[in-house]
From TrEMBL:
One of its GO terms (cellular component) is outer membrane-bounded periplasmic space. It holds the Pfam family DctP. Belongs to the bacterial solute-binding protein 7 family. Keywords: Signal, Transport. InterPro entries: DctP_fam (IPR018389), TRAP_DctP (IPR004682), TRAP_DctP_sf (IPR038404). This is C4-dicarboxylate ABC transporter. NCBIfam families: dctP, TRAP_S1. GO terms for biological process: transmembrane transport. Gene3D superfamilies: Bacterial extracellular solute-binding protein, family 7.
């Protein structure tokens, strides 16, 4: 009987240790993004995961999920908002319905350089918008990853807005991108990226805008040969989780994600900018003519036209953010 009791105690002890180990298991967070394996964002996310594991002594684990494996940005954000252990890449224009003023950060011609644009993330305005976003159930973990400078690849050279009159340019199906191309003087034509090559070949559109890496990767240079450095958007993207999940993390876990997130933003931005220069050279080598563009008249049109398309913005918002960035 005594041996039976001792055996039961030992079994309970092992079970208790197992429960303790389970209770102390690492917190695993999925990181979702649409970029393909090997692209700068993917490389940087994997480095971020290394830093987080190291700094937390294995208490925090980031699991990269590239190539939209977990769904679209909108789908990922909905999961995160309802408490899933997820951090997803997003676009500020995707917050149009929850915190409309944040979407201005994706507007065209707000800045001439990325260094200028990054100023906004240290401003009281951004801090205020961030609080509003928290109240809507979201939490920005990393606000300022440089994603790329968008250029225009077209059939004919473009120097002024007049050169775009009547020209159909493919855009993604987003109100901000439609408004941007319209403000530049062209006819925005929404379609999926996979349909662009045949559309260019058949003359359904005469241009496509995107960072050079996408323009090269899609082989659009086989059909149209003029790369116009319109620099219409310096895209800076956030990585976002849900506020409910963020509050479940302890102070040390949040600190680690904040501190390593800053390193991640710097590293990702360096990789993206280096790749941008390489891809412009690759386009040149593929026979593309690269045209410098005076952006002043495009910027003037954007300042006049863009606010008209977004009546939900606070009055004078575009000008206010331009002053923060360029001041």
């Amino acid at each position: 009987m005594r041996h039976f009791i001792l055996g039961c105690i030992a079994t309970l002890g092992v079970a208790s240790l197992g429960l303790s180990a389970s209770a102390m298991a690492a917190t695993e967070i999925k990181v979702a993004y649409g970029n393909q394996p090997g692209e700068p964002i993917d490389v940087a996310v994997k480095k971020w995961a290394e830093w987080v594991k190291q700094e937390s002594n294995g208490d925090l684990i980031l699991q990269p999920f590239p190539a939209s494996q977990l769904g679209s940005e909108t789908e990922v954000m909905e999961q995160a908002r309802f408490g899933s252990a997820l951090i997803g890449i997003n676009a500020y224009s995707n917050f149009m319905d929850s915190v409309p003023d944040l979407s201005v950060l994706d507007a065209p011609y707000l800045s001439k350089t990325f260094d200028d644009k990054l100023k906004v993330f240290d401003s009281p305005w951004f801090a205020e918008q961030n609080k509003k976003l928290n109240a809507q159930g979201y939490h920005i973990v990393v606000p300022n990853v440089i994603y790329g400078e968008r250029q225009l690849l077209s059939k004919n050279a473009v120097k002024t807005p007049e050169d775009l009159k009547g020209v159909k340019v493919r855009v993604q199906n987003s109100p901000m991108y439609v408004a941007a191309i319209r403000a530049m003087g062209a006819i925005p034509t929404p379609m999926s990226l996979g349909d662009v090559y045949p559309a260019l070949a058949q003359g359904m559109v005469s241009g496509v805008e995107n960072p050079p890496s996408v323009l090269f990767g899609g082989k659009f240079y086989e059909v149209v040969k003029q790369l116009n450095l319109t620099r219409h958007m310096q895209t800076v993207t956030p990585f976002v989780t849900g506020e409910a999940f963020w509050q479940k993390l302890d102070d040390d876990q949040r600190r680690i994600l904040d501190e390593t997130g800053k390193r991640f933003a710097d590293y990702a931005s360096e990789l993206v900018m280096a790749q941008n220069d390489k891809d412009i050279e690759r386009l040149k080598e593929a026979g593309v003519q690269v045209n410098e563009v005076d952006i002043a008249p495009f910027q003037a049109r954007a300042r006049q036209e863009i606010p008209k398309d977004f009546p939900q913005w606070s009055p004078g918002l575009y000008e206010q953010i331009s002053e923060i960035i360029n001041g």
